[in-house]
Amino acid sequence: MNAIRPLDPPRHGAWMQTASGYCVDLHAPDLEMLRLTEIATSLSRIARFLGHTHGPCAYSVAQHSCHVADLLADQPLAVRRAGLLHDAHEALIGDLPTPVKQLLGRDLVRGAESAVHIAMFARFGLSAELMDHPLIKQVDLIMLATERRDLMRRSAWAWGELPEPASMPTLEPWAANEAYMEFLNRAERLGLI
Predict the structure, then answer these.
(1) Full set of structural domains in the chain with CATH
(2) Residue 161 and residue 119: Cα distance in Å, rounded?
(3) Exposure of 178 by Cβ count < 10 A (0-12 exposed, 13-18 middle, 19+ buried)?
(4) With b meaning 16 or more CB within 10 Å and e meaning fewer, what string describes 106-145?
(5) Sign, Cα dihedral of 64, 91, 131, 191
């Protein structure tokens, strides 16, 4: 009997298995077969702010990404796609809030994220230059200000300078299944599926 032997994981141990069983070497990510549904599954279940928001459920990275893409509606298609996928790498490495990045060292975290972020954009035909697009960075900060306004309790410590929140209805966290579907709906409208 010839049994098929599974591939050995990389010796460094830095690899991630997705919900479907797909495995990714985080040092040298090959995302050619990674499906957008796997990204949507993970991002819809990852809570922003480590879950320290109020509301009936966690406010997910998927919902945040949808709002970023929505605020970029008048931009070129590549920018809108990059806006939706600006945090897609977090489906494989998680969402570290800024204070945790500060604790670990922003350069260290950026180095750890970089290969996955670049591979994620390449997987969906986006230029790596779009990862640092200034408009996406600005809209991301606008959403942070909006999330702070709508989802966070009053802080005992100052947050620092943020832009004005978006003029949009008060944010209400979506359930994971709604965030999943909304993320995929936007991806389909943007031609990513």
Answers:
(1) 34-189 (1.10.3210.10)
(2) 32
(3) middle
(4) eeebeebbebbbbbbbebbebeeebbebeebeebbebbbb
(5) negative
Residue 93's closest CA among 139, 35, 25? 25
Would you state the pLDDT for residue 3?
55
Q: Residue 24 phi/psi, 5° resolution?
A: -125, 125
| Strands, E assignment, the chain | 15-17, 23-25
Q: Along the chain (193 residues), what's the average pLDDT of each consecutive run of 10 residues? A: 62 87 91 94 97 93 98 97 97 91 88 92 95 96 96 88 92 97 98 92
Residues 6+ apart with CB under 8 A from 4: none
Residue 156 corresponds to which tokens in the numbers above? Answer: 């005992």
